[in-house]
Design a protein that fits this description.
about 290 residues; about 60% helix
Length: about 290
């Protein structure tokens, strides 16, 4: 009996800690972080180099020693090799034409990181741009880029719907997880006060169900981030190699809450099996002679 109370109390305490971690992860904006300081510095140095009067850029296609392309059956391999050839200067220009900022993003907002970009901080101070923008959970055609071919526009629209479904699943399942864990915690506390083994077992099952919803939410969150980074066309949605990015502490809080929830479910479902059932002895009536 004492072991059952210890396991139940430990499971309820872990579930309460898991609720705190999940609530902290939901309310904060540090699920995914990017740091573009090195990229911005590199583009600034490249722009200063291009503005230098002594800088002369000569394309490889205009070199006098370049052999003219052959015509005939041997021309196909040359065309195939030139298709994948991109000068480093043009690749740098294509990356620097896009505006990359150091940001943090959560379930509800995407914010500029404070103190990372001085130019962005000046624009925020003047009120030209906002520090944080809300994450959209509804489809809007205004976010689609203009003046693109119809096939690329159709691909972007389909990818936008897919990314929207992943964001909705992430937010929906993590909300379901918190609700189920909170309901299970209330049932577990009532079962512990009334010494009801079945209620404690049901609380453990609810903790395991909430952990399952949390697993689905975190997996869809990771899948959504990877999908955003691999969207087509790459020059519009991909990140350059010199931008560092990764998961923030809010994501680790969510994973910690998941682990505590599963452990709490295991302890609360194990506790009723350690209780000693009370045996009631029923007295059998004595049989008399001639009576059944």
């Amino acid at each position: 009996m004492a072991a059952m109370k210890i396991l139940t109390s430990a499971g309820l305490f872990l579930a309460f800690c898991a609720l705190g971690l999940l609530a902290m992860a939901i309310c904060t904006d540090y699920w995914y972080e990017t740091d573009a300081r090195r990229h911005r510095e590199r583009c600034k140095n490249y722009a200063n180099k291009r503005n230098d009067p002594g800088y002369i850029y000569i394309s490889n296609h205009n070199l006098p020693l370049q052999m003219p392309p052959k015509r005939g059956p041997d021309a196909a391999p040359l065309v195939r090799e030139k298709r994948h050839f991109l000068p480093a200067a043009s690749a740098m220009e294509s990356h620097c034409n896009r505006q990359f900022n150091s940001t943090v993003s959560g379930l509800w907002r995407k914010c500029h990181r404070e103190g990372f970009d001085l130019e962005t901080e000046d624009l925020i101070y003047k009120g030209i741009i906002q520090r944080c923008t809300p994450v959209k959970y509804h489809y809007s055609s205004s976010i689609l880029p203009r003046n693109l071919p119809i096939n690329i526009t159709k691909t972007i629209r389909q990818d936008e719907w897919h990314a929207l479904h992943l964001r909705r699943m992430t937010a929906g399942f993590v909300g379901m997880a918190v609700s189920i864990i909170l309901f299970g915690w209330i049932i577990g506390v009532l079962g512990c006060c009334q010494q009801h083994d079945l209620m404690q077992y049901v609380a453990g099952l609810l903790f395991l169900m909430g952990g399952t919803c949390c697993i689905i939410s975190l997996c869809t969150c990771v899948a959504g981030i990877n999908f955003e980074l691999s969207r087509y066309p790459r020059y519009m949605y991909g990140l350059p190699e010199d931008i560092s990015h990764g998961y923030g502490w809010s994501m680790f809080c969510a994973w910690g809450g998941l682990g505590l929830t599963l452990l709490a479910g295991f302890l609360c479902t194990l506790a009723p099996s350690l209780s000693t059932p009370t045996r009631t002895t029923a007295h059998k009536p004595r049989q008399e002679n001639g009576t059944v």
